[in-house]
Amino acid sequence: MRYDSFLDLTGRRALVTGGSRGLGAVLAQTLAAHGAHVVINYVRHEAEALRTQQAIRDAGGSADLAPANLTKPEDIRAMFAGPLREGIDILVHNAAIGSFKPAHEVRANQWDLTMNVNARALLLCVQEALPSLAQRGGRVVAVSSLGGARVIPEYGAVGVSKAALEALTRYLGVELAGRGVHVNAVAGGLLDLPSVRQHPGFGQLAADTIRRTPSHRLGTADDIARIVLFLCSPLSDWMVGQTLVADGGMSLTV
Ligand SMILES: NC(=O)c1ccc[n+]([C@@H]2O[C@H](COP(=O)([O-])OP(=O)(O)OC[C@H]3O[C@@H](n4cnc5c(N)ncnc54)[C@H](OP(=O)(O)O)[C@@H]3O)[C@@H](O)[C@H]2O)c1
Hints:
With 254 residues, the protein is of the alpha/beta class. It has a single domain, classed as NAD(P)-binding Rossmann-like Domain (Rossmann fold). Helices cover 43% and strands 15% of the residues. It has eight helices and seven strands, in the order E-H-E-H-E-H-E-H-E-H-E-H-H-H-E. The chain has helices at 22-33, 46-58, 73-81, 108-135, 156-177, 194-197, 202-212, 221-231; strands at 13-17, 37-42, 62-67, 90-93, 139-145, 182-188, 243-246. The protein has a seven-stranded parallel beta sheet, with helices on both faces. Helix 1 packs parallel to helix 2 (46-58) and helix 3 packs parallel to helix 4 (108-135). The longest helix is centred in the middle third of the chain and has 28 residues, at 108-135. The radius of gyration is 17 Å and the shape is globular. Bound molecules: NADP nicotinamide-adenine-dinucleotide phosphate. NADP nicotinamide-adenine-dinucleotide phosphate binds at residues 17-18, 20-24, 41-45, 48, 69-71, 94-97, 117, 143, 145, 188, 190-191, 193, 195-196.
């Protein structure tokens, strides 16, 4: 049996939240390269969203933009009533935000913002998309990080929101499997991305991570994109509510 055709997403419509830049832009380009029509959600960086859309079109793919602030339920509703009114087959929830500080210093407003973008938005998007996802054998992929299951310094709010995201993935996975909707997640270790490079401690962080990683390098956006593609395809049909860890083996070492 050959499974090449399982990776052909022609005719599928995919929403990538936070698809304007960073990992989300690479996820959008990967799904488009495999034939999906991609809808790029973002909130502020329109120029970056337009650049990603153009890169997809230049490569022969198809993409639209769907600006919406995922902290606002009314924005999410408007996005599904407007740019996404034809429904979707694939939802990749990649958008995330967070203040880098220990959990015990997180303020109430920072907690709310982080939880709402990183975790609640998945719930609200799935609720809006459910009719089309259920009709079309849809796939939902949540982008998490190692901080959802492990303790990373200065990662309090984000780590807790990723734990909620992974728990939500389990619940939605189980609840929706019988309706033909596949829900899974991928949790990446530190990735070599612009958002990380801007961090003042990037050099030290990268060196520490590489030293502790059996594969002796940082992850790349492409490392994660391949796993997202797998989770968007029938190759992963028998997985329900799981979070795949992709970190070059770092979390297995002490
Ligand atoms: N960086 C890493 O090392 C790493 C490791 C593991 C997992 N991850 C995960 O990978 C994902 C992407 O990370 P990244 O580093 O590429 O992030 P990033 O560069 O900071 O980009 C964040 C994206 O989320 C969007 N976004 C933020 N708040 C939003 C809101 N309220 N409504 C709609 N969109 C919003 C941004 O849109 P605008 O462009 O409009 O601002 C942007 O597209 C995240 O889930 C992150 O937790 C990252």
